[in-house]
TrEMBL record:
Record flagged with keyword Nucleotide-binding: yes
Gene Ontology molecular-function annotations: ATP binding; dephospho-CoA kinase activity
Organism lineage string: Eukaryota, Metazoa, Spiralia, Lophotrochozoa, Annelida
Keywords carried by this UniProt record: ATP-binding, Nucleotide-binding
Name listed for the protein in its UniProt record: Dephospho-CoA kinase domain-containing protein
Organism: Owenia fusiformis
Family label: Belongs to the CoaE family.
GO biological processes: coenzyme A biosynthetic process
A GO cellular-component term linked to this record: cytoplasm
Any single Pfam family the record assigns to this protein: CoaE
Domain of life: Eukaryota
Length: 229
């Protein structure tokens, strides 16, 4: 099995591409979804956020007030780094377990849907391909303002804390342009899935892993015969 990184910019349409890939039967490991799970009331990250940012970033029922927390961290880089430190470790634990489950079930590949793939660099070393979902700057700004009811200043602030889409595209192995209609987007995703399904990358990786396993078994037997018998 090989891993594909899926990323983009805020409001670029990455989630739409992720859903389309899932419709094709591609296993998706969604970092955003996992990020919501790890901050549910009572979980370690939830407790740490409460200790660090106080009770003001929570609703009376204990659920995290994401808008309130977002206003804090997007205005202060140090606080944003604090939040990332709290959540990333917990997110990574869940993602690693999901990857192992995909591998054990014989998946050809799995898609890691990670919004900040380039910014955090945490997962770059394990993915074989990187898909960037992009759109033009004005479309991104308009979508974000309409989606989250942000002012132009609020929307631009959230865009600016991420790596520019143009720079992400330079680092990608595959690019999906989401500046046009859904039909055009679907056509690109369809072509991409066909490429992934034809890839022999999984056999290369499995061969390496099996070779390593074989070497481990051989070494174990040799040491047992030499040192134990």
């Amino acid at each position: 099995m090989y891993l594909i990184g899926l990323t983009g910019g805020i409001a670029s349409g990455k989630s739409t591409v992720s859903k389309r890939l899932a419709e094709f039967g591609c296993p998706i490991i969604d970092a955003d979804l996992i990020a919501r799970e790890v901050v549910e009331p009572g979980k370690p990250a939830w407790r740490k956020i409460k200790e660090t940012f106080g009770a003001d970033v929570f609703f009376p029922d204990g659920q995290l007030d994401r808008k309130q927390l977002g206003e804090i961290v997007f205005s202060d880089e140090n606080k944003r780094n604090q939040l990332n430190t709290i959540t990333h470790r917990e997110i990574a634990k869940v993602m690693i377990l999901a990857i192992l489950k995909c591998f054990a079930s014989g998946c050809q590949f799995a898609v890691l849907d990670v919004p900040l793939l380039f910014e955090t660099k945490r997962w770059l070393s394990v993915v074989s391909k990187v898909v960037v979902v992009t759109c033009d700057d004005q479309t991104q700004l308009d979508r974000l303002m309409n989606r989250d009811d942000f002012s132009i200043e609020e929307a631009q602030k959230r865009i600016n804390v991420q790596m520019p889409l143009a720079e992400k595209c330079k680092r990608a192995t595959h690019i999906i342009d989401n500046s046009k209609d859904i039909k055009y987007l679907n056509s690109q995703v369809n072509d991409l899935v066909k490429q992934f399904q034809k890839s022999y990358e999984q056999w290369k990786i499995r061969s390496v892993l099996l070779s390593g396993l074989g070497m481990f078994i051989f070494t174990s037997i040799y040491l047992y015969n030499t040192l134990v018998k």
